[in-house]
Amino acid sequence: MAKNEKKHFVLIKTVVILGLILFGLIIFAISKESYKKKQAQIEIDKLQQEAEKITRENTQLTDKISYLDSKDYQEKEARDKLNMQNPKENMVIVEPGLAPTIETQNANNENGKKLVVKTTNVQKWWDYFFKY
After folding, report:
1. pTM listed for this prediction
2. Cβ neighbours for 116, distance < 8 A, ≥ 6 positions apart
């Protein structure tokens, strides 16, 4: 029976080794498929993000097109580029430096009436920050 036991032991040893090899191959195949699935999911996520980005850009472009087609934009462009104006509008040109100063008001106040001091906004800001 020693021969039978040796054959039996060799057979069991061979079956165990073949089982381990088969188990290793199965684990390798599962891990390979798992890796492919993970890579496919990453690619799907990238494509979904790109689709969302394109959708946002499309919405922005649609908004811009609707603004460019609006009457307000067309009037603004006609004013800016063609120097046109609405018939109900009047143009007023304000030259800088023509605001009344204290000296000119003092000269006008020779009658002894109440002195009204008018200062420009720039002077008011200057006084606010640097006078005190």
Report:
1. 0.46
2. 105
